[in-house]
Amino acid sequence: MKILVGVKRVPDPNVKVRVRSDGSGVDLANIKMTVNPFDEIAVESAVRLKEKGEASEVVVVSCGTAQSQETLRIALAMGADRAILVQTDAELQPLAIAKILKHLVAKEAADLLILGKQAIDDDSNQTGQLLAALLDAPQATYASSIERRDGQLVVVKETDDGRETVEMSLPAVVTADLRLNEPRYVTLPNLMKAKKKPLEVVDVAGLGVDIAPRFRTVSVREPVPRKPGELVPDVATLLSRLRAETTLN
Asked: What residue ranges do the domains of the chain occupy?
């Protein structure tokens, strides 16, 4: 079983981002970037499946600028076998990424696609579902457990009502939730070894994939600051204040 894992370069979640003065988007100048946390979980899951002998190869893929090579090297240091960078400076929306991944699935003859459930920069939560639709393949979103059983893929999903277990044939698409695993720490020796692993750079123009944006961002603005909390002397006062707030709203 060959596993293809998508990884994205995003702002570090511990860094406060700023909106550009013209409101056109987020200012990424001099911002620390890292691997999307949900994608790290996806990579860890794929590597563990290989360590169990259930996968023959783990290939990580990123779509974006040349700087995304750093993101791929981290995934390689975690244990992936090789990497592919689909390079472009153009804006890539979820549908475009799904189309690129569909092309790579066919090229690589991948059996399982594992993606993070969403990227923390845009929170779209669409790529996995769109990819499954394009491939006409079974999908399991918000996975908290993945295993092979009698040639089938058994996935436990997180839902609003609890947990749901689904059994799927391959090829299939899975998106990783937080409960799936705890990604391993990337050591310096493994980072050095990752530099020797294959990393293929492909120009998106050579794939023949339509990546034209389907929507445009009208404006981006900072969230409205929250009002500071207030201490009240007792429960009766609290209830009175809550009633008053509810009436005003």
From this structure: 2-248
Query: Hey, what amino acid is at 62?
Result: S
* pLDDT the model gives residue 248: 62
Partnered with residue 35 across adjacent β-strands are: 9
| Widest CA span in the chain | 68
The long-range contacts involving 219-227, CB below 8 angstroms and separated by at least 24 positions, are 219/23, 219/24, 220/19, 220/20, 220/23, 220/24, 220/25, 220/26, 221/19, 221/23, 222/19
Residues in the chain with pLDDT values less than 70: 248-249
Q: Classify strands 18-19 and 57-64 as parallel, antiparallel or unpaired.
A: unpaired
DSSP line for 135-156: HT--EEEEEEEEEEETTEEEEE
Cis ω before 171 (30° cut-off from 0): yes
Dist. CA 240–CA 3, nearest whole Å = 58
Question: What is the CATH number that goes with domain 2-248?
Answer: 3.40.50.620
